[in-house]
Amino acid sequence: MSDGATQTAPSAVDRFLAPLAGREHELAGRGPLWLRGLRRAGRERFVTLGFPTTRQEEWRATSVAPIATTAFQPAPSPAPLSVADLPPVARLDLGGPRLVFVDGRHRSELSSTSPAIPGLWLGSLTRALDERPGAVREILERRGAAAGTAFEALGAAFLDDGAAVLIDPGTRLDPPLQLVFLASGRPQPLVSHPWILVALGAGSRACLIESYGALGDGPYLTNAVTDIVVGDAAELDHCRLNLEGPGAHHVAAIGCRQGRDSRLVSRSLTAGGHLTRHDLVARLEGEGAECRLDGLYLPRGEEHVDNHTTLDHARPHGSSRELYKGILSGRSRAVFNGRIIVRPGAQKTDAKQSNRNLLLSNSALAHTRPQLEIHADDVKCTHGATIGRLDDDAIFYLRSRGIERDAARNLLIRAFADEVLEAIPLEPLRALAAGLVAERLPRAGTTTR
Amino acid sequence: MTPRDDAPGAAPGAGPPAMLEIRDLRAGIDGREILRGVDLTVAAGEVHAVMGPNGSGKSTLAGVLAGRDGYALTAGTVRYDGRDLLQLGPEERARDGLFLAFQYPVEIPGVSTVNFLKAALNAVRAHRGQPALDALEFLALVRDKLRLVEMDESFLRRAVNEGFSGGEKKRGEIFQMAVLDPRLAILDETDSGLDIDALKVVARGVNALRDGRRSFVVITHYQRLLDYIVPDFVHVLADGRIVRSGDRKLALELEQKGYGWLEGATARP
Q: What total of structural domains would you count in chain B?
């Protein structure tokens, strides 16, 4: 993409912070006093860091110039909407509660949260600050605004609404919880900074689906932060569906902290958005924690998807399995950077990472980079990465049995995706994901050999 | 391009109508001519063995007939049931009843054998104007055909050829052939890499499908397979041409003498 020199022009930072001049006062009036300090710290850090440039190692293959050069504004007023206007991902009935946000604001009239579930506090961040200030403050301050990327700092500067999922110790939730963030996708460029807190008490269990989508094709920026704490012996299945609209710039920091003997499954599906950058950091802070990261990204056209993941093994006997797969068509770009850290003393760590990319066109491009930092001597760490095309021999074999070329290609593409899709535990979700893969396959006659 | 009267295997005679007629087929790869004027006529119900040393063009012939990409076809015609075979894509040939048993069956991770076969069979049946089989009918059919090659049902759930032993792969090819019910089967070195027991299983499977109407072209390096699949005709392919045709005795002669004594016969203008 274009060079990084122009992105750091101070005007870009100022322009992004300008709404605070009028808004800071209003924001300061919302929520407790300590939050004001946190916002200020975020703002200062964002000013210090500025927008990342492609000269920075972590952003070498992804230019944020399209974001920095656009005058994104917070949504002035809520768009009038009814449930019937929402895209399928926002209407997926999984039998559990669902919170819907539009342009970063919680919309209770579009959400369904009743009846209350014992042991679960689920609601907007604004309400959580009122009703559960202690828990929210603890999580927010522990993470701190003085850490993370420039985008996270920017999100902290605007920290206002979002979602909170607080699960009491020992609570085992069956119905999956859904958080849906929609952009109205209006013609003027809008920005939202949703902040999502998820805390599972010791021994609890939950399945959380965090989805992103759009109602229109206009340009917008979603700058999301998801902060997840999985307590000792707790289990979380976290599915993140990034189905943003064609005008979307989606930047997300997903941070997970895992306690002793906890188990986290993180599934990430990206099928949409013009520019996507995910920074996922999973810290295995307790002994014997297990973490599995599954990812599937399906960029097409001019889309750019960047997944940066970090698995940080801090304690002994942790295990992690990471499988990220990409199917790229058109002139799309995908970046995968998989970092595994094994801290001193994190003996008996067992980490396995795999990134596989399937290129469906000659103009698509995938970058993949494993990054292993191992500071303990009794560990098992493996990694593998591939970038390939559909196997011509396999296509011929299928055709020689009577299967059309396009059907043969689709069979092979679907088989490639299935390794991730089939692990999705909920059938309606699996079907939705499979439908997206099918929808994104090149149409018959548009493929080139 | 004119048919040569002396071309072995090309005698169109007054017998049954030809299922496959290859005339002066010339084909190459990467600018190198490998088939240098092949003539072969196969009538319905006949079993033809094509034998030849390594590099004689046996697999090229199989590949060209099945429609594999990458060959330059420089001359000649191939008529299958009166139609120009070379104009058809591989899937069209398959639906019209042509089957190639691969020398090296391709491993396809993630695609289960059962789903693959269902897709293939339904494509072939749709072309024949037959309705798709329902799940029970399909299962009954494949179970029946599995027995033919002495394979276990668990095989259906495995990914196509993935992790199969050499013998399983070859039996799998014959199993697929039995399910798809072709009219012309080309077996490309189906005997290579098989021990005698597996060879017998494969041959039994093939023989069970000989019904007087289905035709076979059995491509092999060794005559051993022909002890079990007894051909009506034997042709020797050397240096891209069929240099000798005969009956089963020719295969036995080759077993004794090797191919050397025939290779001189290729030095034609």
A: 1
